[in-house]
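Marked as duplicate of an earlier ticket. Keeping the data here for the record.
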Amino acid sequence: MLKPNVHYADLKESYLFAGIAKKTKQYLEEHPGQKLYRLGIGDVSQPLCPAVIEALYAAVEDQSRPETFQGYLPECGAPFLREAVAAHYARRGVTLSPDEVFVSSGASDELGDILDLFDRSVPALVIEPAYPAYVDANVIAGREIIHLASGEENGFLPEPPRTVRSKLIYLCSPNNPTGAVFSREQLRQWVDHANATGSVILFDAAYEAYIEDDALPRSILELDGAKTCAIEICSLSKTAGFTGTRLGYTVVPQALSRDGMSFNAMWVRNRTTKTNGVSSVIQKGGAAVFTPEGQRQIKEQIAVYKKNAAVLTGALDRLGIWYTGGKNAPYVWLKCPGGMGSWEFFDYLLHEIQVVGTPGEGFGACGEGYFRFSTFGSPADTEEAAKRICRLLQ
């Protein structure tokens, strides 16, 4: 008899988002017509910028004419987009060859698919609180998971463990859910640790565009030695509003190898075996993000979300509530007031002021007693939510 992947049975039920949906649905059924102020969802609210829309329209028109019609593109990405991404890194002082850049349909897909490169005997180290997909993808793969606790005492930015065992290391900076950002020195410790132990860092840089402090690294590849120990996974979802359009890129350095095997060459073979690449239309839209006009326009959109963050952190400052994130990240991670638990605080906000956030417990045990606000909502809703929070908690 065919045997299924039994590791799916090891997955925990997604109580976080299912629980939020259930509670909000029940509340609205009991209070019909009541407006909710949603600060929990990680989706963007601003539309694609004009430069991207113009490029998408032009790309669709190209598909309507025999002389410009585009069929299959190279599985690893169109040369024009790989070159645009490499040039984007070069402007920030990181030298990449276009063939080190792989176009993807988004960071979430890559975070799961990239595990194909590593033997299942290699454990995965995940810093908690953590984006749930890090854990679930490794559970499905049957991989051992090492949970590294973090907390308020280290700003949710822990140091590398003292163990010398080789492992996959998940780092996300700016972090989801905590909004914490590694300093250059803190990230240096992780790069040195990975090189010393033969580990490989999977660096999730989905929110790098929100870093406004030039002293903070936007890419792990800015650090010497990172190309021999790190793979960087990026997304245009929160950078340029591609959550529904789906586009990202992964950087696999040529210098990264283990046991004489090149991870770059392995990833080429993986992509050419398992995918037919990303739509040419979407890649043309993505290339527009990296033009001068595209960069100007997406920065204007990001400024909307950063203003939302300032509104929320300003409210927390007035209330004297501890938090991290907000300034260099689109998430605000706060300590629940009055010693409340994460779900207790969720219920309190929902029923008293109709504000919906995300309980920290859903991101792992270290998140209990903390709460996440997203800054991706509309400015009007964010302003109203902040006022209601201040009235309730002052």
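See parent ticket for discussion. The radius of gyration is 21 Å.
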